[in-house]
Amino acid sequence: MIADFVYDNPSLPMVCIGDMNNILYDMDKSSSNINRSHMCAFRHLVKQCGFFDLGYSGPAYTWTNKRFSSKPTFERLDRCLANDEWCVAFPISNVYNMPIIHSLSDHAAILLSTEGPVRKVKCSFKFENWWLKEKDFQYCAKADWYSTRNKSFSSRTKHLAGTLKIWCKKKKPLNQELNNLEEQIKHIQMTMLLKHR
Description:
Layout: H1 2-8, E1 15-19, H2 36-49, E2 51-53, E3 63-64, E4 74-75, E5 78-83, H3 84-89, E6 94-97, E7 110-113, H4 137-147, H5 153-169, H6 174-195
Antiparallel strand pairs: 1-5, 2-5, 3-4, 6-7
């Protein structure tokens, strides 16, 4: 089993490419008829192994049931998964989904290249729990949310994320705060030791 191989070979660069026989997300299938238990089990396995989906360029779907005369179903069953060590060893990995050639197979070929242009990774918004402890967080978030009340929910969340990214840059880095606290604790401990000598 893949998970056993991963556990037995920690810290090795690993890549898993080909037909996974399952989808990871709803959007990986053209119809709404989705086996959620299979999808969740596959998602759990990917997480358990420490794999990342390397994404793709090209067509979104890699498999079809070939029912072109009635109602065809398309799915992204073929993908490329890799662990963190692989991404470090091969930082310029690009995956290309080829078109499905209807007469030959129900699957599309996928190609992994470890050379080529560097892909620009879009940084996703990441909420930090320590923000809640900042005195001005509630005020800043509420004010921004209220200022976009006439816009769509999607626009409001994007605007709020942008505002919070700028807001948090003005705060002391968390590592600096932790280092300061560590120094204060050391100072208190040394003072206590000197008093009891």
